[in-house]
Design a protein that fits this description.
Blueprint lengths: L16 E4 L9 E8 L10 E7 L5 H12 L6 E7 L2 E5 L8 E5 H12 L4 H18 L4 E4 L4 H7 L6 H8 L7 H7 L3 E5 L3 E5 L5 E8 L16 H12 L3 E6 L2 E6 L15 E5 L10 H6 L1 H4 L4 H42 L6 H20 L1
Parallel strand pairs: 3-4, 10-11
Antiparallel strand pairs: 1-2, 2-3, 4-5, 5-6, 7-13, 8-9, 9-10, 11-12, 12-13
Helix pairs in contact: 2-3, 4-10, 10-11
């Protein structure tokens, strides 16, 4: 008799349809459970989540075989979720991507449920992609830093701040808030501005940010019926026109902060590509303090904690560059230049002043090409 997984019979997700996954063909060590099917209003195939239970952490190859056994030759957008104890392994919907390993079940469930809540499979695919980008840019799910701060500074240094515990206490109750309610709880007074924007103020009369609220059919960077440009580009234009320093864009569980002026952020990217995002559905509670430290009215005031984190990120990036230069000139240049000089001598080049200068120039050329690669 096949083993019945602990998750079988329990409804893990809210979905349009729940199917029982047949045990036939399951890789050794995995017991299949249920399949959850999302919405498909346009007939392109619904997003699906297939759940299985494993006795030990599954390899990428095992998850890929499980993925293919469900997907077959169809074009469905599929995520396989393998549960081991209190942890979950996620694979898909792109076969070329890596496995998201050992994520707490509660966190993985919130993230996958957010994808199932999307209006169609394309939006669900984009939602999962956002999680992956968060992990790639910060090493942690729940927030994405795209060139605004130094990721290491946010990840390692900020939780050591003296106000971190207080910020976490303030932030935790806000993780369930959405839309205008979240804006209010962050300490802003919101006034309608233009057709699709809110003008946000804190304790003073000076505006601090423009907010744009998206519906579930809209994406941050995609055109929609409401916006001639993308919502982000439109919001940045409004912020620039009103001389407001920040743009906040909200979509369901996601909240993003964009600088509305050029040259802000350590990544040296364009304004529309420079942002910090918190995914309220996936954020680990241990990182909750980031919400009020970065997005609140108190944080975004002149000299507030958002500016402090920007300044700290700039110092960290500068220090990192200095340490890299020191290590290169201490550990790399001596050996590389010696090797170049030896090879030059073999060609008949004398290692006089001119020869040593040539060796140094060639050493730097090799170094810069290696760094570029």
């Amino acid at each position: 008799m096949p083993h019945t997984p602990a998750c079988r019979g329990k409804t893990m997700f809210n979905a349009q349809q729940k199917l029982t996954w047949s045990d036939a063909g399951a890789p050794t060590g995995l017991t299949l459970s249920d399949i959850y099917v999302g919405s498909d209003p346009i007939g392109i195939g619904a997003f699906q989540v297939a759940v299985a239970e494993a006795m030990s952490p599954p390899s990428r190859e095992v998850l890929k075989r499980l993925f293919k056994s469900r997907k077959g030759n169809t074009n469905i957008q599929l995520v396989v979720m393998a549960i081991v104890g209190e942890r979950a392994w996620l694979f898909g919907p792109d076969e070329a991507t890596s496995v998201i390993e050992a994520m707490p079940i509660s966190q993985a469930t919130r993230l996958v449920q957010s994808a199932l809540d999307e209006p169609d499979a394309l939006a669900a695919y984009a939602r999962i992609g956002q999680l992956r980008r968060a992990i790639e840019t910060t090493g942690i799910s729940g927030f994405t830093n795209n060139g605004l701060f130094a990721s290491h500074h946010i990840r390692e240094n900020v939780p050591n701040r003296s106000d971190w515990a207080a910020a976490s206490v303030k932030s935790l109750p806000l993780l369930s808030k959405r839309g205008e309610k979240l804006i209010q709880e962050l300490g802003f007074t919101a006034a309608r501005h233009a057709a699709n924007a809110l003008l946000l103020r804190g304790q003073t009369s000076a505006p601090q940010a423009i907010a744009v609220l998206l519906d579930e059919s809209e994406q941050f960077d995609g055109k929609s019926q409401r916006f001639q440009l993308s919502p982000v580009a439109w919001g940045l234009n409004v912020a620039a026109r009103e001389d407001v320093p920040w743009l906040i864009v909200l979509r369901k569980d996601q909240i993003r902060l964009y600088p509305a002026k050029d040259g802000v952020g350590v990544g040296q990217k364009g304004q529309s590509d420079t942002y910090f995002e918190i995914d309220l559905a996936a954020l680990d509670q241990e990182r909750a303090g980031l919400l009020t430290l970065i997005f609140s009215a108190e944080a975004l005031k002149v000299g507030g904690t958002t500016q402090e984190l920007l300044d700290g990120s700039s110092r960290y990036a500068a220090d990192l560059g200095a340490r890299l230069r020191e290590r290169i000139y201490e550990y790399v240049i001596p050996d590389l230049s010696t090797a170049v000089a030896v090879e030059l001598e073999k060609t008949g080049q004398e290692l006089n002043v001119e020869g040593l200068q040539l060796a140094y120039r060639l050493t730097l050329r090799l170094l810069f090409r290696l760094l570029f690669q």
